[in-house]
Predict the structure.
Amino acid sequence: MFKNRKIMAIVVVFLMGITLLAGCSPAEEESAGPEIGIVLPTRDEPRWVQDETRFNAALEDSDYSVEILFSQGSSATELTNVESLLTRGIEVLIICPQDGDAAAAAAEAAKAEGVTVISYDRLITGTEAVDYYVTFDSIAVGAAQGQYLVDNATGTGNPLYLYAGAASDNNAFLFFEGAWNVLQPKIADGTFVIKNSSEAVNLQDNAELTRDEMGRIINQVTTNWDFNEAKNKAESHLTSAGAADKGDVFILAPNDGTARSIADTFATDGDVSSFIITGQDAEIASVQYIIDGTQSMTVFKDVRTLVEDSIDMALAVLDGNTPDTTGSYNNGVTDVPAKQTEVIVVSQDNVQSALIDSEYYEASEFTGLE
Ligand code: BGC
């Protein structure tokens, strides 16, 4: 009995010790807080999970502590994420806004705490509270998509279906502008005939579109960057189009996720004999589609470079230096100093050299590579 009590006492003291230690450690961690906070739009799209993976890889050996949070498609969650990072004492915020205008509130909250705000991939609009912008050349992305369609079209009267990203994303306008610059002369000369947007048809003689005009087209053909919305739109366009509007069709799809949805939908229509469809992001699933011939091209945006550029910027700021920039982007209120990265067109012809030989992906992630 006595012996049992003694053992019990030892156990109790031991357990108390563990409880005390467990109670201490989170508080200690919290006071150490991350220096850099990263907020990304959503885990529901492979594009942003790709960015998280590349950030983690790039920061593996860094002395700075970093925390990455996802907004899950909600500007309210985005603001809460930023506020929680501010409470934990970050000095630099790297943020890819869910909605460019709505994110102004989060950027302003960060600025008010003296935090440097770096807009990542998508520009935060309508506020002075953005210090820097790291981005790909988004006009070039759209131009490459348009050019691919042009290069694969012969003759006249080719049916053209247009799709766009979310109007809340400034990039959707840049992608569309880049594509329009290339496609419009080929619509004007009869190579292509727009089949799914009355607004685009009304504006088809204009070589340049105002933001408001682009907005009108985008509102008709937006996917909102959502796979289901892309599929539903494609279905309804195919339902209202007659057999004569189909045949060998050309599809401007804004990114890989929506391209796969739209391609799958067009593939089931008996009156569509073939289609050429664009994309961007070089998502693994789309690279497989390209190898299989069910997506025609993608625009490869090497996320490693964007991640590296934004980390370099953050570290320059933390070291008290001014980051390198290469130009600027106007966000409606101010010119934001920016660092821009070029993009690469990938089709079946160069999938091996652009994505495998460059060690962006491993060949084992795909089937049917030659
Ligand atoms: C990004 C694209 C992405 C899209 C949807 C854009 O702002 O630049 O890479 O596919 O958002 O998330």
